[in-house]
Design a protein that fits this description.
Helix 5 runs parallel beside helix 6. About 35% of the residues lie in helices and about 30% in strands. By secondary structure, it is α/β, with parallel strands linked by helices. The strands form two sheets. A nine-stranded mixed beta sheet has the order 6-5-4-7-8-9-10-11-12. It has six helices and twelve strands. Helix 6 links the parallel strand 10 and strand 11. The termini are far apart.
């Protein structure tokens, strides 16, 4: 008899049978436990940046996936679907033993109002609806084509920073199909339009804030528009004086 055969014969036949039965029983209990876990109703824990995210939309989207059960739920697929919701920039879904699903939301940050029916986010994404109404974004209105969203999201914060130093408020940003930019400003309670054209945006905004507005501020109530589409200077449009009427 070889050494390997002798080692196999060390376990008596009856004890070997008992060990096999115990192993089968243990496997059956584990299988029953897993089936029990898979049959439990799942609960969802929602975390993250939820200020602008509609929880009802999240709930409606998640519910069909919960019916698949703990083991059959596909976290990657659910993350992709959640990212399609308004205001959701990304989502992370994690299964937590034995019957919980953790959903963590990263939301878009609103930047400005886009026309009448959308909001521009800081990532350059247009959100078709705002839930709830987003405070602050109604102040700046953007009128441009959807293809310009990324460009506006890049330029708008820089322009706002420069104008803020000049104590001028930005109320409107109009970008023509040809790329010409027109700003609607509020200065000391008066409205004025600034024509910036399509070139040298940074230079023209600096000239507006550091040269034109300080010079014109004492007479701003009579200014209608400022044209900065010049290499080194600017032109000013003035209000016409009211006609005198005879008694």
């Amino acid at each position: 008899m070889t050494a390997s055969a002798a080692s196999l014969a060390l376990v008596p036949r009856g004890e070997a049978g008992l060990g096999l039965g115990a192993a089968l029983l243990l496997a059956g209990l584990v299988g029953f436990a897993l089936a029990e876990v898979g049959a439990r109703p799942l609960t969802v824990e929602l975390y993250g940046e939820l200020e602008h995210v509609d929880p009802r939309g999240v709930q409606a989207l998640v519910e069909p996936y919960l019916r698949a059960g703990f083991f059959s739920l596909d976290p990657d697929l659910l993350e992709l679907r959640l990212a399609e919701l308004p205001w959701v920039r990304s989502a992370d879904v994690e299964r937590l033993w034995p019957d919980r699903i953790a959903v963590r939301i990263k939301a878009h940050e609103p930047l400005a109002r886009w026309g009448d029916a959308a909001v521009l986010t800081r990532a350059g994404v247009l959100v078709a609806s705002a839930y709830p109404p987003v405070p602050g974004v109604e102040v700046v209105r953007i009128d441009a084509g959807p293809a310009d969203a990324a460009r506006v999201a890049r330029d708008l914060p820089r322009v706002q920073t420069i104008l803020r130093r000049a104590e001028a408020g930005l109320r409107g940003w109009e970008l023509s199909p040809a790329g010409d930019l027109r700003l609607s400003l509020e200065l000391d309670g008066f409205s004025v339009v600034a024509e910036l054209g399509r070139e040298d945006l940074a230079d023209r905004v600096q000239r507006l804030a550091e040269v034109a507005l300080p010079v014109l501020r004492p007479r701003i109530r009579t200014v209608t528009h400022i044209d900065l589409r010049y290499r080194n200077g600017f032109a000013v449009g003035w209000q016409r004086p009211e006609k005198e009427t005879n008694p």
